[in-house]
Amino acid sequence: MPLLQPLGRTFLDGLSAIGRLALFTLRAILLAVRPPYYPRLILKQMIEIGYYSLPVVGMTAVFTGMVLALQTYTGFSRFNAETAIPNVVVLSICRELGPVLAGLMVAGRIGAAMAAELGTMRVTEQIDALVTLSTNPFKYLIAPRLIAGIAMLPVLVATADVIGVLGGYLVSAYKLGFNPGSYLQNTVDFVEFLDVFSGLVKAAVFGFIVALMGCYHGFHSRGGAQGVGKATTNAVVSASILILIANYIVTELFFSR
């Protein structure tokens, strides 16, 4: 029994954490879709998530596209299949690399910032002050972040797709000797609507995950500055893991046969 008690306690603690997260998620979704709304707060979060994250997402996308084209050429040249490089680049960027890398970059930047901001508000009793003033903290703090995350991640991913394909085009046309017109024509002819749409759906799911994890861990932080730091770390790690899990699930829904 002494050996089984820690295992059982860990299992029950895990179930309790899953239950708290499920109730938090359900309450956040219900309050996010019901009025009243706070347009100014939503716009502020959209700018924070979308506009200020654009440089890091763009840099990640352009160099990912460049490296992908270079590595694909190195592998495909062994089988005389260099003409398939535009197809591989655009598929990889639109379906997988664009949404996943953008989601991870935003999780590291925005998820940590949300957790730190809400965690600081929690430990300094600002959230309790909102309740005292008859303001629902879910409506005022969490709903705008969820709405902004769901709305802005597809915009970031669409931009990342264009920049990533551009990076592959630059390397292919000016380093590997591809004909620029033929490369762009092959890219346009091969990509389909479902390839782009699936990536945008993934982006919306990832935006929800990033905002939810940042708000959840920040909202439940305890223990002063140390608790805020722990909440920030947990927000980034949990969001990154859930993004990878959700990526497989959405891919299975779209492309399973």
DSSP strand count: 0
First-last Cα distance: 47 Å
Number of domains: 1
Number of helices: 9
Low-confidence stretches: none
**Rg calc:** 21 Å
Q: What is the typical, i.e. mean, pLDDT?
A: 89
Report strand %.
under 5%
Structural category is mainly alpha
Largest sheet: none
Give the H and E element order: HHHHHHHHH
Helix fraction, binned, reads over 70%
Shape: elongated
What is shown here, in short?
By secondary structure, this protein is mainly alpha-helical.
Which secondary structure elements does this structure contain, and how are they paired or packed?
Layout (H helix, E strand, L loop, with lengths): L3 H30 L5 H13 L2 H23 L8 H39 L2 H7 L4 H38 L5 H11 L2 H27 L4 H32 L2
Helix pairs in contact: 1-6, 2-6, 3-4, 3-6, 4-6, 4-7, 4-8, 4-9, 6-8, 8-9
Write up this protein.
This protein has 257 residues and is an all-alpha fold. It has one domain. The protein contains 9 helices and no strands. Helix 2 runs parallel beside helix 6 and helix 4 runs antiparallel to helix 9. The longest helix has 39 residues. The model has no long low-confidence stretch (mean pLDDT 89).
For the structure shown, list the relevant keywords:
single chain; about 260 residues; mainly alpha; about 85% helix; about 0% strand; elongated
